[in-house]
Write a sequence for this structure.
């Protein structure tokens, strides 16, 4: 691992840890409903000690919105990314191991889903399923799994041809034991590299859906805050800048931490 | 400039190359002196990590900038020290000094046609017009023996065979009109018959154009055969240097001795290379030579093979008959095996010999059930190895085991060596876990490893240790037969003989039958009781004992033997008539009739149409050649 | 040979398009309420008789099997139905919006790819130095920014504060421009959206190019080119950059869909009347047939872009032509 990866990885991990803590204790840090009108509209930051970052056009506390937005953003993206990787592992493993028709059919479907512009698909899914946190998770999962499925399949196919798998066959291991004890542990390692990227992207997709007003309207999220801040872009640009910064920070910290983790693991594999 | 006879082409003295590593400074090369005269060949030999390639890169000025280089290098009569003057050195690179590398595929840019590639070098070094450039390129290509240069120039590297690629690389190296050729294992990645052609080409350039050749290799046989002088490197130092004959025949340094012992030369008797078969057929004498050779080489002499093993009662026989295997990729069909018959019995070692694409590995995999033939049967003691449902029962499984080529790749990376050896035991036996662990330690001991090795992970062991562990694993189920796929090919020369000794020792103790796949004729001659020569999926010749190579009748077998450099036979004095022409067509395009006929120097019209069958000439000696009945004219 | 290659690729793409078509049909089936419900919801009317008549007219009252068959046969004749929201045939609506999006997406792919190649090349050239770290890290930072936000920042900075560029749209409204002036006007309008879209995907290409150049620098053929005494510029351009382009081009194809998806938000932010904004409008007006048609059109665009990129790749890598026929 280069020094740069190490440093950026550490920074990413620290920011991510802070964000997770904020999300976990959102209710303690900023009690109450962040969508409630609590003060005069469009207060600038530091003007009122009760609202350190000011208020929105509707008199909502910006700080509370950011804090509670962390919860929505991280939960949705982590769940969606977990689903993406699980679907990827499932499809990729089945495809790689079974081969033949199963592989053909699964790969055609993967290719088809990958050919649909992912965000358009997510958009369509949310609009069909209705605007809720669950449907956002489902939409992200169903639109972004193909790359992970292809990676897992490629890895399964690669590892299957290695000599140690033949050695296990010669030793008399059953196909199932070979799949789970020999091939999968090796094939799934590169999937770790996907975690950071997938979560980071999920954060961005979630925020974009919320920005377009397709997330749960009863939950304060960063994307929604940017969208409502647009109306007052000229007079109060901070209402757009702050929540966007939060999204960028979250996505960046996840991908930096993920990169470092992947580099660490691939080093461990070589040593 | 003074007469070329007196002024060395290259004079290197006190070369030291240092790298700053995590833990202090590492000397990759330490105080190396080398001299090379025009028209001479100097070989630098050593194992991986000896520093031989670093010396070569230092000579070409191609070391990475973090390397700290000291010493002096004078080139072609010039009096400036090139090591102290990087810009002068880079002027020399490509002009006075041309370089060729081990893997011709990797040294040619894949997205340029070979003509464009050579053009570029010509253009940079010689102020020629556009038209002259291509003409010069074509003449360079024919100079390195490429026929039909014009159409070949339009080809991309991936469309050419390994030998042609290396010729292109040589042509590109010659484009700047160098006086000195630096060659880094230029034939190691090539098949034996192709290696022979490239060596011919290089020596021809040395003789005709009075170039100097610095040849880096791990193969003492090649070095001894082609060089005037040899320098032996070990741990970054030259430990022995002298005339080629002195170094190979009377090595002084223990490391040279170890190298010589590990490199098992193919013995065709050295006195009279141009004699006829009958005169060559003098096995007693050759065996004598062999013994002497091995005695001089301090390794423990391998125990003679006892065909009457103790467990003679338990005679196992694995019979492959009529094996045909075709791999389909898209519309293309690769024939890996075409009606091959093969038998391995307990106590004997059968060698399967062939170049890349001969199908030897496919046959080995079929012999152990890792692959299934399209037609033909594999029978173990009267029972099919695999039943109709593609299943192989536990007992059969445990009776045939395998040792792979790359020992590191053959161990599951996330499992300790001990646990890996335990896997076959767990499946094949009903031992308790305690008993299994005891058995693992026992096995490790029997292959010369320590108990402690059981807890280590594959990457913590050396190649030789890993291959011993792999043998231990193969023996875990107490098999009758062992399939060994190039078991020593990826090991350093000095470790090879130890692993081969271990194999023969275990064979004698347990009465193992061994199917030994190899491309190394020296190793095969040393270990095999019976040898089967494959060419493009078909058996060309099968013979018995160590004399097999002297009595060989098939032109292909003879060309293989002739292509094998021996440290004691100067390359230029070798009978070149025996050489095969060109390169194998590849298993995608099997020639009609006798598949060897396009490369055969003895082919007649009938060979193009009639496929010869394998006929017995004398007991245990089979040949598939239409002209096998005739007395061979060896010219 | 080339024609056969294109033929093969089109043939391979057919099942993909077919699967998407079937998937889209079932996606629509999943939706609660149909276009008529949506129409009534927006117009406020609610006559059951009219509803039944409309359903009859649009074939919404048939069984699912019949509807599927009708859907597929119509699709085959490029009849994508009628947009309730726009009161025009869907094909017409899409055709009027597609060119702008293609322009936005195409320029963004080109800008993103070439900037990525350039910056990745520079990063590799200065491997391990501050320039390398600077390029790599800032590409990552931009990659983490949501496109809509970056677009809004661009608007705040360049349109509101500096007043260098227009706020949005695709041309100055009311200005009667011609020829070069009109072109310049379009370019001025496209700068922000294209840069926004390009920059958010830049990191991918920078990383790929950097890694590929590093690999090429360590490759046997770069070493061999040095040993042949070629000048550094030739080594870098012909023997390193040329082969290193290959993975970048592959990635450009893989990310074509993402670029198209990204244009949904970008077009919304910059008020560009393209396919992306159309999909947003379809969603807000619950015009699901229109949305479905956009999905299909988007897929077709991605498939075609990928075939084009494969063709380009084939030109770059001679090894492909020999294995794919």
């Amino acid at each position: 691992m280069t020094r740069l990866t190490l440093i950026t990885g550490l920074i990413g991990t620290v920011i991510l840890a802070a964000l997770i803590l904020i999300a976990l204790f959102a209710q303690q840090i900023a009690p109450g409903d962040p969508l409630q009108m609590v003060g005069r509209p469009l207060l600038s930051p530091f003007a009122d000690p009760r609202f350190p970052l000011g208020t929105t056009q509707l008199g909502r506390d910006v700080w509370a919105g950011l804090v509670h937005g962390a919860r929505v953003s991280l939960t949705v993206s982590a769940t969606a990314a977990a689903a993406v990787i699980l679907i990827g592992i499932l499809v990729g493993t089945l495809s790689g191991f079974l081969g033949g028709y199963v592989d053909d059919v699964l790969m055609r479907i993967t290719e088809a889903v990958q050919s649909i512009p992912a965000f358009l698909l997510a958009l369509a899914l949310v609009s069909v399923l209705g605007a809720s946190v669950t449907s956002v998770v489902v939409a992200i999962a169903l639109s972004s799994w193909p790359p992970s499925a292809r990676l897992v399949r490629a890895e399964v196919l690669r590892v299957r041809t290695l000599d140690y798998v033949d050695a296990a066959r010669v030793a008399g291991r059953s196909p199932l034991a070979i799949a789970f004890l020999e091939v999968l542990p090796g094939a799934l390692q590169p999937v770790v590299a996907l975690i950071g990227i997938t979560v980071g992207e999920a954060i961005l997709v979630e925020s974009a859906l919320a920005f377009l007003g397709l997330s749960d309207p009863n939950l304060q999220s960063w994307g929604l805050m940017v969208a409502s801040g647009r109306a007052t872009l000229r007079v109060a640009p901070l209402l757009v800048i702050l929540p966007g910064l939060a999204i960028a920070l979250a996505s960046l910290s996840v991908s930096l931490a993920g990169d470092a983790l992947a580099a660490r693991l691939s080093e461990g594999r070589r040593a | 400039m003074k007469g070329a006879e007196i002024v060395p082409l290259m004079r290197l003295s006190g070369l030291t190359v240092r790298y700053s590593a995590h833990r202090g400074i590492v000397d990759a090369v330490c105080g190396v002196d080398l001299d090379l005269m025009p028209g001479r060949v100097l070989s630098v030999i050593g194992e991986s990590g000896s520093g031989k390639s670093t010396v070569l890169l230092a000579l070409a000025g191609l070391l990475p900038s973090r390397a700290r280089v000291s010493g002096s290098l004078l080139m072609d009569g010039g009096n400036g020290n090139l090591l102290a003057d990087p810009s002068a050195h880079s002027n020399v690179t490509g002009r006075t000094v041309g370089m060729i590398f081990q893997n011709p595929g990797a040294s040619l840019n894949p997205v340029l046609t070979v003509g464009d590639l050579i053009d570029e070098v010509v253009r940079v070094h010689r102020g020629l017009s556009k038209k002259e450039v291509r003409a010069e390129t074509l003449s360079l290509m024919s100079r390195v023996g490429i026929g039909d240069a014009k159409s070949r120039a339009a080809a991309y590297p991936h469309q050419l065979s390994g030998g042609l690629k290396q010729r292109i690389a040589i042509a590109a190296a010659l484009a700047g009109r160098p006086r000195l050729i630096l060659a880094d294992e230029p034939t190691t990645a090539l098949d034996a018959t192709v290696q022979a052609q490239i060596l011919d080409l290089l020596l021809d350039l040395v003789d005709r154009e009075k170039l100097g050749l610095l040849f880096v290799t791990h193969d003492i046989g090649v070095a001894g055969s082609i060089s005037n002088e040899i320098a032996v490197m070990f741990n970054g130092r030259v430990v022995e240097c002298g005339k080629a004959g002195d170094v190979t025949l009377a090595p002084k340094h223990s490391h040279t001795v170890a190298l010589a012992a590990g490199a098992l030369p193919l013995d065709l008797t050295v006195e009279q290379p141009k004699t006829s078969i009958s005169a060559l057929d003098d096995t007693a004498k050759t065996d004598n030579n062999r013994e002497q050779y091995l005695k001089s080489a301090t390794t423990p002499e391998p125990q003679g093979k006892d065909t009457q093993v103790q467990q003679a009662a338990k005679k196992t026989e694995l019979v492959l008959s009529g094996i045909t295997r075709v791999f389909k990729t898209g519309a293309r069909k690769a024939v890996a095996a075409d009606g091959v018959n093969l038998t391995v019995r307990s106590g004997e070692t059968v060698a399967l010999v062939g170049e890349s694409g001969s199908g030897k590995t496919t046959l080995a995999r079929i012999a152990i059930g890792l692959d299934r033939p399209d037609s033909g049967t594999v029978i173990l003691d009267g029972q099919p190895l695999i039943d109709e449902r593609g299943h192989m029962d536990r007992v059969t499984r445990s009776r045939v085991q395998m040792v792979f080529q790359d020992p590191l790749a053959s161990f599951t990376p996330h499992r300790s060596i001990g646990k890996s050896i335990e896997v076959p035991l767990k499946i094949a036996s009903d031992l308790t876990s305690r008993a299994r662990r005891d058995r693992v330690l026992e096995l490790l001991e029997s292959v010369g490893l320590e108990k402690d090795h059981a807890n280590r992970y594959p990457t913590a062991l050396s190649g030789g240790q890993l291959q011993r562990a792999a043998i231990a694993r193969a023996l875990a189920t107490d098999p009758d037969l062992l399939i060994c796929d190039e078991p020593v090919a990826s090991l350093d020369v000095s470790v090879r003989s130890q692993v081969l000794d271990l194999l023969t020792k275990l064979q004698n103790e347990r009465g193992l039958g061994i199917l030994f796949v190899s491309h190394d004729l020296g190793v095969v001659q040393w270990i095999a009781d019976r040898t089967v020569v494959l060419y493009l999926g078909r058996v060309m010749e099968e013979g018995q004992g160590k004399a097999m190579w002297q009595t060989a009748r098939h032109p292909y077998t003879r060309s293989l033997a002739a292509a094998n450099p021996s440290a004691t036979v100067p390359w230029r004095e070798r009978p070149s008539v025996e050489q095969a022409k060109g390169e194998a067509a590849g298993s995608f395009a099997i020639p009609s009739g006798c598949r060897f006929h396009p490369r055969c120097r003895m082919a007649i019209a009938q060979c193009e149409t009639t496929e010869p069958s394998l006929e017995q000439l004398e007991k245990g000696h089979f040949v598939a050649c239409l002209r096998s009945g005739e007395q061979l004219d060896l010219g | 040979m080339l024609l056969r290659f294109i033929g093969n690729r089109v043939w391979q793409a057919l099942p993909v398009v077919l699967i998407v078509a079937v998937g889209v049909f079932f996606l629509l089936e999943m939706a609660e309420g149909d276009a008529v419900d949506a129409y009534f919801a927006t117009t406020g009317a609610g006559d059951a008789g009219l509803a039944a008549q409309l359903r009859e007219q649009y074939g919404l009252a048939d069984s699912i099997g019949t509807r599927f068959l009708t859907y597929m046969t119509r699709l085959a004749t490029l009849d994508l139905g009628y947009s309730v929201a726009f009161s025009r045939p869907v094909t017409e609506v899409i055709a009027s919006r597609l060119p702008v999006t293609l322009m936005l997406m195409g320029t963004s792919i080109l800008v993103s790819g070439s900037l990525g190649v350039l910056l990745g090349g520079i990063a590799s050239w200065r491997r391990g130095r501050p320039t390398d770290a600077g390029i790599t890290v800032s590409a990552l930072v931009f990659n983490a920014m949501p496109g809509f936000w970056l677009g809004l920042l661009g608007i705040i900075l360049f349109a509101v504060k500096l007043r260098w560029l227009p706020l949005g749209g695709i041309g100055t409204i009311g200005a009667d421009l011609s020829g070069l002036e009109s072109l310049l006007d379009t370019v001025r309008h496209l700068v922000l959206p294209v840069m926004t879209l390009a920059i958010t995907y830049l990191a991918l290409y920078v990383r790929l190019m950097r890694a590929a150049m590093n690999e090429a620098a360590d490759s046997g053929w770069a070493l061999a080119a040095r040993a042949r005494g070629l000048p550094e510029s030739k080594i870098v351009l012909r023997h390193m950059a040329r082969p290193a382009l290959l993975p970048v081009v592959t990635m450009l194809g893989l990310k074509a869909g993402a670029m198209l998806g990204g244009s949904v938000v970008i077009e919304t932010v910059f008020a560009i009347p393209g396919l992306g904004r159309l999909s947003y409008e379809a969603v807000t007006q619950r015009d699901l047939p229109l949305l479905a048609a956009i999905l299909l059109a988007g897929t077709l665009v991605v498939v075609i872009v990928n075939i084009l990129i494969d063709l380009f790749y084939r030109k770059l890598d001679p090894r492909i032509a020999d294995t794919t026929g």
